[in-house]
């Protein structure tokens, strides 16, 4: 499995200038490749190959006065920019043909120097390295200071340097993980758990544990509103507007970059051999009046982390259908009491009289529906059948007396 490890970079003023040159050269080569293919399409000609684009847009361009500054950056950066353009076209055509999963992908567009995200990539043949003092040495940029928050488990195959909207720099390494080492890090366990995701609590586990929602966006809302109001009052193109934009971007970065989901998903994967969770329709919920709270919770990101961590460490993640009535069914007897408004947090089963906490009951039903609940002898259990009421017998369209006869 390939994973990405990101670390914060702290380049000095000279290195920031060199990185800005590299970002700009990679952007120009990408735009030249898109322009060359667009010109060929309009002329009804075949698309130029990668080799032709490399010779024309990099090798020959360096000999001209208009593109001579391309020689000031690593050639690997320029070649990777061409590969990015080629991959963008492949994804576009595959999406048009229906061969690519996920949402439809549009045709590649020109990049701008005002884009909020700039990036360059160095592969192994670029001869980048980590120095003995822990700095990241990049060709024609220098040894950049890195904040190593953890050790790399293996030799990276490439490194991508990213500058985000808040003006921060990151190094993103691609790592091929070792399955044997991952299995040793997470020894087996016989624990199983069901998870009910919500807004009152971020998650409620089938064992009764309730995990509060951090509500990062709600807590930073006042600061964000103030920063955005100041930005709207600045004249466009002015230096004060750029300062205000950076302030807004940093405020958004503080909301978005938190370790809550990572820490919680890792803990659940470490403590449980199998996990059951609902397949929530996040896009649909994000179109309701609860949209801001749904986005603030970050359910989709959390479930995605559970998925890849379960695959990495040999755990099982079971998704149950989004239409499973986990909040309506009694976890004791299996009776369905029907839908209940969100303000009802506890309810009493009309069939057996059990008193349920809404979220805890739903988490138990998620665990049972996922086939993770076991009896004392170790066999999987499911809710028992409830005898039908007198007026429920018979089939659709026929009265009970007719069917009974």
Annotation keywords:
405 residues, alpha+beta, single chain, disordered C terminus, 13 helices
Strand content: 15-25%
Provide the helix percentage.
25-40%
Q: What is the averaged pLDDT score? A: 88
Specify the biggest β-sheet: 7 strands, antiparallel
Dominant shape: elongated
Number of strands: 14
The strand line-up of the biggest sheet is 2-6-7-1-5-4-3
How far from one another are the termini?
A: 62 Å
Please report the number of helical segments.
13
Poorly predicted parts: 383-405
**What structural class is derived from the secondary structure elements?**
alpha+beta
Q: What gyration radius follows from the Cα positions, in whole Å?
A: 28 Å
What is the H/E order? EHHHEEEEEEHEEEHHHHEHHHEEEHH
């Amino acid at each position: 499995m390939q994973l990405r490890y990101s670390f914060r970079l702290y380049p000095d003023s000279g290195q920031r200038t060199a990185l800005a040159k590299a970002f700009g050269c990679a952007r120009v080569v990408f735009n030249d490749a898109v322009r060359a293919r667009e010109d060929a399409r309009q002329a009804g000609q075949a698309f130029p190959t990668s080799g032709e684009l490399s010779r024309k847009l990099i090798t020959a361009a360096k000999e001209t006065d208009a593109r001579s500054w391309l020689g000031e950056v690593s050639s690997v950066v320029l070649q990777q920019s061409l590969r990015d353009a080629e991959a963008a076209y492949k994804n576009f055509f595959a999406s048009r043909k229906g061969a690519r999963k996920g949402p439809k992908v549009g045709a590649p567009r020109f990049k701008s120097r005002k884009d909020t995200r700039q990036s360059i990539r160095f592969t192994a043949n670029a001869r980048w390295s980590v120095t003995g003092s822990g700095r990241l040495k990049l060709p024609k940029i220098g040894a950049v200071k890195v904040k190593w928050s953890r050790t790399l488990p293996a030799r990276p195959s490439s490194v991508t340097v990213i500058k985000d909207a808040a003006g921060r720099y990151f190094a993103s390494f691609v790592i091929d993980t070792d399955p044997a080492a991952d299995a040793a890090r997470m020894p087996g366990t016989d624990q199983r758990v069901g998870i009910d995701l919500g807004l009152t609590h971020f998650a409620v586990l089938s064992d009764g544990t309730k995990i509060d929602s951090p509500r990062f966006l709600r807590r930073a809302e006042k600061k964000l509103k103030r920063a955005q109001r100041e930005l709207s009052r600045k004249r466009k193109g002015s230096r004060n507007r750029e300062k205000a934009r950076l302030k807004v971007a940093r405020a958004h970065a503080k909301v978005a970059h938190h370790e809550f989901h990572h820490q919680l998903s890792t803990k659940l994967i470490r403590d449980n051999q199998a996990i059951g969770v609902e397949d929530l329709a996040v896009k649909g919920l994000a179109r309701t009046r609860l949209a801001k709270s749904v986005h603030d919770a970050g359910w989709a990101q959390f479930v995605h982390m559970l998925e890849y961590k379960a695959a990495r460490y040999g755990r099982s993640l079971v998704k149950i259908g989004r239409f499973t009535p986990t909040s309506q069914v009694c976890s004791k007897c299996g009776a369905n009491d029907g839908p209940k408004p969100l303000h009802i947090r506890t309810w009493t089963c009309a069939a057996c009289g059990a008193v349920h906490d809404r979220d805890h009951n739903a988490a138990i039903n998620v665990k049972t529906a996922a086939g993770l609940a076991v009896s004392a002898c170790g066999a999987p259990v499911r809710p028992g059948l409830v005898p039908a009421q007198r007026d429920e017998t018979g089939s659709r369209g026929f009265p009970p007396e007719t069917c009974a006869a």
